[in-house]
Write a structure and sequence with these properties.
This protein is α+β, with helices and mostly antiparallel strands. The protein is 35% helix and 29% strand. It has helices at 7-13, 20-23, 27-36, 51-82, 173-184, and strands spanning 86-91, 96-104, 108-124, 134-143, 154-158, 162-167. The model has no long low-confidence stretch (mean pLDDT 76).
Length: 185
């Protein structure tokens, strides 16, 4: 006698669209199924970068650019102000040059319209008759370029040799002598 199978059970026995081996999964397939269901998050669902971090970056860039601009502008303003002013440049060997600073960088300073002081012997007549005249050393202002070998009136000085740079005041005797010499030529 045939046994009665309930309709529920009968439906389970009916043909299914999935093959029988699909329901059997190996442990590796089970592990893969976890990853298969995972999806990459879309751009919209990714965490956004910190707004505060962006503001800090912008402020830091503005400070760097501002400082660089200030440093370049300060140097150019100083150069513009000193382009027409005479300076005394003292070197480590004791030599002093007077001139207008034309250009400067980390290694060199360029002076134009250069003068320097040279000690020359000068005969001083004696007050008493019959005595020989005395020789005394007198400073003389020499314009660079007037030497016998004919150099240009611009010099470049290594910064390592410079000890002091001073701006000459309008009432400086050296500056007055320089102005008198440049007006003569």
């Amino acid at each position: 006698m045939p046994s009665k199978i309930s309709s529920k059970k009968k439906s389970d026995l009916e043909y299914s669209e999935e093959p029988a081996f699909a329901s059997r999964q190996t442990p590796a397939a089970d592990a893969f199924s976890e990853f298969r269901d995972m999806r990459m998050p879309s751009r919209a669902s990714r965490p956004k970068k910190s707004f505060l971090g962006g503001i800090i970056l912008v402020i830091a860039l503005m400070l760097i650019v501002g400082f660089a601009g200030y440093a370049l502008n300060a140097k150019s303003l100083w150069m513009q102000n000193s382009k027409s002013k005479y300076h005394a440049v003292f070197l480590s060997n004791g030599q002093v040059y007077f001139g207008i600073i034309k250009d400067e960088d980390r290694e060199n300073l360029t002076l134009e319209n250069v003068f320097y002081v040279q000690m020359v012997d000068q005969q001083v007549p004696s007050d008493k008759e019959g005595e020989a005249p005395t020789i005394k050393q007198v400073p003389q202002l020499v314009r660079k370029g007037d030497e016998f070998y004919g150099p240009q009136n611009t010099i470049r000085i290594n910064r390592d040799q410079i000890t002091v740079i001073e701006e000459l005041t309008p009432d400086s005797q050296i500056l007055k002598d320089i102005q008198a010499r440049t007006q003569q030529k």
